[in-house]
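## Example pair
The file below holds two records. Each record gives the amino-acid sequence first, followed by its structure token line.
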Amino acid sequence: MKCRYFWRIGALLSAALLLSACATTSPWRVPYSIVPATAAESSAATTRQDQVVAALPVLRLTPVTAPEWLQGHDFHYRLLYRSPQQALYYPDARWVATPAQMMGDLLQGRLTESGRWQAVLSPSSTGNAKLLLQVRLNDFVLDFSAPRQGVAQVAGEATLVDAQNYQVLGQQRFAFQAPAIPANPDGGALAMTRASSAFVKAVSHWAEQVARHSSPK
């Protein structure tokens, strides 16, 4: 009888502790994304106009790559004032896809909407392209210089390659920042979106310039 009594007490205590843990654990938020849901009508109008004026060769965007620590959906941040070399992540916030996947979608949309290219092929497309755009994402993190001072960091490099002979036509590094206001996942996601938008805008413009001066005819 005593054993059964203690077993019941233990079971009740375990259940109470489990409920307590669930009550104090922060619920998952809706995953964040840096990719807009829809494109502006003005962008579509600009695309049609630009396509009539001039068109660069067919471009293929290869899969965006990233270091191993950016392979998951984690929302990373660093406490520069405490441990600048350590990348941490929010336990109750995440991205809708990996940073590389989101950056690839964002860049694909930007290049297509620019209207400067005859076509912009996705990595999975089987069409023939004259140029390849390779992008590596090196940093995608929210840095805190103080507990309430956060800055989004987006950095990487782009390489434009001749698809016929794989000659490198150009390579450039890019880095952008945006303040996180407020300095939490909500403000951080907005800041990461702004920094990412600046990143793809710069990469797109750079690729156009390099292609215009050195693309195969």
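Second record, same layout:
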Amino acid sequence: MLERVAVLSDIHGALPALEAVLAEPDVAAADLIVLTGDIAAGPQPVEVLDLLAALGERACWVGGNADRELVEARSGRSSPHDVSNWAAAQLRDDQVARLAALPLTVTRSVAGLGQVLFCHATPRDDEEMVLVDSRLERWAEVFAGLPPEVGTVVCGHTHMPFTRLVDRRLVVNPGSVGMPYGGAGAWWALLGPRVQLRRTGYDVAAACARVAAESTYPDAAEWADEYLRSRHSDADALAVFGPGDGR
């Protein structure tokens, strides 16, 4: 059983934000670092994947829709997101192969929480929308078929941190490391024996300048300004994502 698990979601190829989280003492000391998808689709995809690969067995990878889209873009199926098409072209073949092999879910036993299922969006789909205020009926739908012993589900995808109970099952969204909605900083979670939603502050202005200088993505400066500075509020995001939740 794992005593401490750090969960990093939606890094989106933002190297300075990832470096800030990995420097956290609680992340460095964690028994396992779980990456819940959308890892590389951003302005520094190669660097982010190499840094995470260097963690070796300390990291457990789960695939997200943006990771799948990178693989698809590399095979000729264009993504609707310019940054994803650019990022796919930067990746080495071994990195594409790694993303292609990522599982939809993983389950681990965590102290104080029991069986924890980690996924990107929902356990059955890598781009379904569920939100902090989704209806219980909606949660029952996306959790249909889950083993009863899974008492906690950790998901990402919507870039907004929350914890809530869903018919006696705990749901955790750690928020986004690289594309946070609702506030600047790198958001993540620490599990065991309870759930802590954490935010790592870093020099966002310096990070934006670094991304603009180091990335060859043509719109790197604009990307960094929009996402590292968290120009979109949680209210903005909920309004956009609501229809995907069936509202």
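Notes on the second record: The chain has a mean pLDDT of 97. The CA atoms of residues 22 and 46 lie 17 Å apart.
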